[in-house]
Fold this sequence. Notes:
It contains 6 helices and 5 strands. It has helices spanning about 15-25, 45-60, 75-80, 95-110, 130-135, 145-160, and strands at about 5-10, 30-35, 65-70, 85-90, 115-120. The longest helix has 16 residues, at about 95-110. It is globular and about 45 Å long.
Amino acid sequence: MTIALTPGTFDPITRGHLDIISRASTLMDEVIVAVAESTPKHTLFSIEERTELAKQATTHMDNVRVISFDGLLVDFARKMGVSVVVKGLRAITDFEYEFQMNAINQQLDYRLETTFIMSPPEYMYLSSSIVRELAALGGDVSKFVTPEVAEALKFKFSDM
Ligand code: COA
């Protein structure tokens, strides 16, 4: 049984992330969406909110689970008995960063393999910060996120 982790900050989860998760779920027996609790980024949504939004967005995918984690990804992978990480590659700018992350993770645990799925053109330049900025300025985010995420963004920014 091949279980893969799709890790990220998911602040918030976008249709770009969902495309990668959904495609990973057709290749793997099971996919665990790993929502990182501690991140150098100052997040708009709390870890509970990011996890809940990811759960709602993936509820229709039978072999997908969403779990939050704290600490190193390699430790979480070991704890879950997972040896494959699947990440999306968007523009070429992702490559350098992913290359570095993979090199570090390999040093920490050589058994953890990272594999990549290319983003389709429509999501090539999508990111959570673009979505947050668009929502903050009152723009329409419906093309980029699920209705639940769009609602959560609206609520968050109406509060500020
Ligand atoms: N579609 C749309 N956007 C995507 C995307 C896709 N397929 N893939 C990535 N992105 C975007 C995200 O939206 C995010 O955008 P933002 O910066 O504008 O908010 C950006 O790319 C980075 O993604 P993020 O979710 O933050 O993931 P990451 O690639 O930076 O990695 C972890 C985050 C959690 C995997 C990584 O930090 C980690 O492993 N942390 C645990 C600690 C650890 O083990 N560190 C490594 C050793 S020190």
